[in-house]
């Protein structure tokens, strides 16, 4: 891969040589085939090759030269050989691609009109003036058999599909190049048609960006699946239509050719829906020009239309829709005309006109329905996939939002805890300083006072150490000062909740005097938040129980267990505001963070028909409230 990138990067400044090289190759082929070296043929070939050579650097001039070449051939009285016609058709295809890829907006659309007009002109040169002749049967109109007119129409359609496909391919290349303002070029075809830049991108599949893509980068399993599907399609068609595909005759060979072209379209349906659509059109027109009716291989048309709606961008998607309508019209017209020619209806045209019109209308309705349904099915699958991806992105965004809110809640609770601890630490340090100064001044008058002061200093410092360990972050903002709550203030909070209309039962069990200041603040805040949640989300007609119990088991150690139990409301389905996940509240993360920072733990969740919050806060040894 690095060697390939290095080679392509070295060739990038010389891409303008590609079209002149192709022109030289075409002229060389004309010389090698041993064609007559007449002035008209040489002039036409030179004009076609000049149009190819200038299609990148001077697309306007290339378009004018191509018109001169076609007019020169039409004005020439003599008939030129079939190889000359094939060379001219190939030159027109290359010139149209270059004009659509590198021309301006006006020149590009002039090229599209030229593709439509050149198709019947070259078809006339191929059939009427050339060596490609169709069987002669039916009425003679203007000196030509009706079958010749039908053959000219089919040849015009074939060339129109080829020319428009080349133009459309160039148009998609120009559009992708215009939108790819940055990043690697996603395909070798676009790189070759680009005026400058580096080597084509070699990144992983799906890294080309969000712009229009002529060639989609597939993973290896996807590519393997598409190729295997094309092989299975060929095998199915050969088995079901063995007599038509493998009979050693002209009809059998043409049927097999149509099958192979359709198989290529099926294999490319996901990698490049635009190219797949063009190849499917080519196969369909080859099928009609070789005189075949409906074949089993025609199911590839449904697969390709489905793929254009599912994988194509906006232009390719609507090109598929237009192809469904045009294809239904062309197929109905072809089947009607071939049926009329086969039964000799043109001999009795006036009496059979109504029957032909009804047959055409019926075939058109059936064809449009079948082709349109395949396209609509692809569009529905595309819409479903987009909705699923959007839903997944929305759920992911909701999860990210909940995580962010939880982080904010935790940080807010930590800030609140730091503010609560501010007074505790400041008070402890003030006591330590006062006791140390008092002991220093009183050591001569009252030596026993030193021991008492040291005991007080030790207890206070131990309590302050616990409080400092609780702090996880040091805030540099000034916080408003105020009295800090303690375990004794829980009763006041219970009374306030009762006054709000929620019946609360309060129970204390055991001795609860061993908690430090940090643990008392945490206990108060946990009870306060649990009662607030019960008031907001619980059943206010049933009482809430609050139990403060002494804990002294071997597993948890001495401390206090807080249990708040409330009844839940009857659940009612409520639509979410954003259609996503429920929002994370501030209560539970804040309570859990307080209990953790105080050295304990907290659990909360449904229990039966109620909701239970249980917290454990340890007693700090050597500290008395």
From TrEMBL:
Claim: Metal-binding is one of the keywords in the record: no
Protein name as annotated: histidine kinase
Residue ranges of every copy of the DUF7134 domain listed in the record: 216-383
GO cellular component, as recorded: membrane
Matches recorded under Pfam families: DUF7134, HATPase_c, HisKA_3
Transmembrane segments: 21-39, 45-70, 82-100, 106-128, 149-174, 223-244, 256-282, 294-311, 318-337, 357-381
A GO term for molecular function: ATP binding
UniProt KW Phosphoprotein keyword: yes
E.C. no: 2.7.13.3
Residues in Signal transduction histidine kinase subgroup 3 dimerisation and phosphoacceptor domain copies: 413-478
CDD domains: HATPase_UhpB-NarQ-NarX-like
Taxonomic lineage: Bacteria, Bacillati, Actinomycetota, Actinomycetes, Micrococcales
Catalytic activity of the protein: ATP + protein L-histidine = ADP + protein N-phospho-L-histidine
Domain Histidine kinase/HSP90-like ATPase per the UniProt entry, residue ranges: 520-619
Enzyme class of the recorded protein, top EC level: transferase
Assigned keywords, A-Z: ATP-binding, Kinase, Membrane, Nucleotide-binding, Phosphoprotein, Transferase, Transmembrane, Transmembrane helix, Two-component regulatory system
InterPro entries, A to Z: DUF7134, HATPase_C_sf, HATPase_dom, Sensor_HK_TwoCompSys, Sig_transdc_His_kin_sub3_dim/P
């Amino acid at each position: 891969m690095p060697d390939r990138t290095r080679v392509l990067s070295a060739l990038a400044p010389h891409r303008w040589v590609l079209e002149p090289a192709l022109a030289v190759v075409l002229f060389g082929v004309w010389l090698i085939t041993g064609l007559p070296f007449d002035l008209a043929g040489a002039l036409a070939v030179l004009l076609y090759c000049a149009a190819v050579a200038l299609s990148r650097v001077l697309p306007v001039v290339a378009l004018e030269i191509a018109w001169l070449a076609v007019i020169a051939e039409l004005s020439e009285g003599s008939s030129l050989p079939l190889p000359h016609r094939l060379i001219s058709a190939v030159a027109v295809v290359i010139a149209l691609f270059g004009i659509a890829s590198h021309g301006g907006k006006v020149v590009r659309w002039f090229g599209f009109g030229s593709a439509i007009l050149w198709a019947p002109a070259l078809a006339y040169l191929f059939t009427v003036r050339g060596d490609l002749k169709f069987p002669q049967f039916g009425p003679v109109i203007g000196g030509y058999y009706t079958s010749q007119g039908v053959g000219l129409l089919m040849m015009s359609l074939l060339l129109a599909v080829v020319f428009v496909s080349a133009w459309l391919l160039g148009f998609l290349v120009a559009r992708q190049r215009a939108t790819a303002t940055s990043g690697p070029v996603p395909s070798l075809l676009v790189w070759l048609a680009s005026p400058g830049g580096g080597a084509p991108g070699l990144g992983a599949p799906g890294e080309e960006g969000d712009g229009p893509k002529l060639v989609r980068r597939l993973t290896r399993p996807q590519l393997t699946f598409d190729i295997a599907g094309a092989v299975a399609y060929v095998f199915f068609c050969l088995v079901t239509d063995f007599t038509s595909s493998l009979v050693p005759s002209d009809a059998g060979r043409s049927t097999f050719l149509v099958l192979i072209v359709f198989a290529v379209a099926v294999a490319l349906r996901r990698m490049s829906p635009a190219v797949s659509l063009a190849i499917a059109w080519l196969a369909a027109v080859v099928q009609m020009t070789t005189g075949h009716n409906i074949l089993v291989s025609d199911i590839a048309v449904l697969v390709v239309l489905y793929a254009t709606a599912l994988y194509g961008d906006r232009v390719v998607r609507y090109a598929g829709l237009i192809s469904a309508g045009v294809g239904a019209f062309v197929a109905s017209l072809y089947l009607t005309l071939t049926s009329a020619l086969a039964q000799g209806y043109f001999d009795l045209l006036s009496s059979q006109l109504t029957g032909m019109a009804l047959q055409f209308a019926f075939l058109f309705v059936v064809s449009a329905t079948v082709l349109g349904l395949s396209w609509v099915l692809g569009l529905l699958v595309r819409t479903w996939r987009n909705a699923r991806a959007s839903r997944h992105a929305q759920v992911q965004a909701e999860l990210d939002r909940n995580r962010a809110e939880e982080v904010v809640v935790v940080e807010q609770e930590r800030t609140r805890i730091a503010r609560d601890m501010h007074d505790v630490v400041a008070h402890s340090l003030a006591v330590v300083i006062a006791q140390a100064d008092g002991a220093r001044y009183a050591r001569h008058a009252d030596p026993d006072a030193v021991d008492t002061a040291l005991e007080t200093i030790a207890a206070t410092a131990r309590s302050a150490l616990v409080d400092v360990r609780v702090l996880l972050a040091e805030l540099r903002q000034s916080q408003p000062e105020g009295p800090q709550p303690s375990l004794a203030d829980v009763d006041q909070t219970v009374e306030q909740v009762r006054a709000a209309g929620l019946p609360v039962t309060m129970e204390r069990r055991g001795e609860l005097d061993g908690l430090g200041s940090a643990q008392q603040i945490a206990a108060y805040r946990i009870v306060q938040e649990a009662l607030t949640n019960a008031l907001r989300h619980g059943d206010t007609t049933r009482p809430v129980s609050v139990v403060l119990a002494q804990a002294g088991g071997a597993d948890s150690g001495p401390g206090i267990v807080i249990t708040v139990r409330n009844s839940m409301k009857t659940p009612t389905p409520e639509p979410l505001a954003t259609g996503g996940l429920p929002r994370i509240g501030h209560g539970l993360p804040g309570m859990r963070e307080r209990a953790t920072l105080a050295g304990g733990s907290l659990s909360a969740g449904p229990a039966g028909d109620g909701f239970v919050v249980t917290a454990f806060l340890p007693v700090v040894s050597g500290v008395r409230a």
